[in-house]
Amino acid sequence: QSGGGGRRSLRLRGTREKSGQSLPPPARAAEGAAGPGYERSQAPGSGPVRCCPAGVGEPGGPPPSCAGSRAGSERGAARGGRRQRLGGALPPGAPGRGASMSSILPFTPPIVKRLLGWKKGEQNGQEEKWCEKAVKSLVKKLKKTGQLDELEKAITTQNINTKCITIPRSLDGRLQVSHRKGLPHVIYCRLWRWPDLHSHHELRAMEMCEYAFNMKKDEVCVNPYHYQRVETPVLPPVLVPRHTEIPAEFPPLDDYSHSIPENTNFPAGIEPQSNYIPETPPPGYLSEDGETSDHQMNHSMDAGSPNLSPNPMSPAHNNLDLQPVTYCEPAFWCSISYYELNQRVGETFHASQPSMTVDGFTDPSNSERFCLGLLSNVNRNAAVELTRRHIGRGVRLYYIGGEVFAECLSDSAIFVQSPNCNQRYGWHPATVCKIPPGCNLKIFNNQEFAALLAQSVNQGFEAVYQLTRMCTIRMSFVKGWGAEYRRQTVTSTPCWIELHLNGPLQWLDKVLTQMGSPSIRCSSVS
């Protein structure tokens, strides 16, 4: 401060001494304001003056000693005393005043701890927290209905004869736990029985379950021991004669490579609805036994369908040397190539996971996703670019129990040409099927293919070779093709993929190798 300030302070002091009055605390604090190294905290004449040495209260400086600081210390001490009376000081690192009580006092009910003790599989920290929230959510629901003891009994005894444990079915059939949605029976079957469970397609309800998910009642059974996992059926080996007399007529499949495909919708007559969900079978979903749930197909499923039971060997083959050729599951169940119009783009994707998606996004390193948004093409035109923007979540492919399902996750329909699916429903082999958003379709069945293969072996090399077409499935995003569209061929659609089913193709290869060469000679003049 300037010397003027000091003189003012001294004059004030002399005046008070002459009058015989004692200085109040603020005046005493102001008394030393004229000394060196001090700063005034207020302008002169603006009320009580508080001063403190330079550097006091700053990091590394001495503690404040002015009256205001002493008052603050006294208030802090009083608060500390109250905190002590309320149960002691907070431990180091404890959350502040804004933290939630659940984080300050974490508490997991004993019943939740016991149920989590039966959890299958190992999860990371985030997944562990989510599992705990899922169990807490279920416990809260079951407490209201008095079914908590029955749940604990089912989990601890692992008995299929326990009662149904039900929760109310939501509007879309799914259960939301901490911003993640899923089908309730899938969530709790994955939690307590099969940690590698991917989809509801892998589950089938037991016969005694009265509230199974597929019954679509108001209550859904979440007892994990009321569901069983769909097992992959063992395909019988194909008996192949080493040398056969090839009949003149053989084709079990028509040649459709140059024909204009027919078109159909699946499910028939279903329009996209907002309440369709990815993991819930929509109306018209075709169950494993071949029955439609709500809608009838607009094509007969029996008319025109060939008998898929293997033909018995003819008497001429009885004395031949028959070699069994078995089916082997490959490491990669399918290979997927992406095309824009008639040009292939990018590398082939090899699917090893039983559930994977083909979408329009950009993740480069996920074994469960083939992301088309990453792929570049210097010849890409505006129509292709516009279509790519509408692929979105694309299509999810499941390979479960020897069956392949395609489920439309996109906001736009997908179009599928599957000869195996067409054979099942008695459609023309080149028929293109439209799958609306939220719907799914079984596009291949290993058992049906095995029956056709056993039947074709009796008809010769060419008949077996034609089955290679069944192992190729074409799928277009957003834009359809066929008789009802201006695009007549799949190579006219902007964005499409081609699936090669590796298991059936490798099986065909072994059968053809065992059969030898075809009887029809191929020469330069044939």
Would you spell out the secondary-structure blueprint of this structure?
Blueprint: H1 3-19, H2 25-31, E1 38-40, E2 51-53, H3 67-85, H4 101-104, H5 110-116, H6 125-145, H7 148-157, E3 166-168, E4 175-177, E5 180-182, H8 184-192, E6 203-205, E7 219-221, E8 227-229, E9 238-241, E10 263-265, E11 322-325, E12 334-340, E13 343-351, E14 355-359, E15 369-371, H9 382-389, E16 395-400, E17 403-408, E18 414-417, H10 419-425, E19 432-435, E20 440-445, H11 446-457, H12 461-465, E21 472-477, E22 496-501, H13 502-515
Parallel strand pairs: 10-19, 14-15
Antiparallel strand pairs: 1-2, 3-7, 4-5, 6-8, 9-11, 12-13, 12-22, 14-16, 16-17, 17-20, 18-19, 18-21, 21-22
Describe the protein in words.
The chain folds into 3 domains: 1-55, no CATH class; 110-229, Alpha-Beta Complex (Smad3, Chain A), CATH 3.90.520; 239-515, Tumour Suppressor Smad4. 27% of the residues lie in helices and 18% in strands. The protein is an alpha+beta fold. The chain contains 13 helices and 22 strands. The strands form 7 sheets. A 7-stranded mixed sheet has the order 10-19-18-21-22-12-13. A 5-stranded mixed sheet has the order 15-14-16-17-20. Strands 1-2 form a two-stranded antiparallel ribbon. The model is unreliable at 1-20, 22-70, 82-105, 245-255 and 268-319 (pLDDT under 50). It is globular and about 85 Å long.
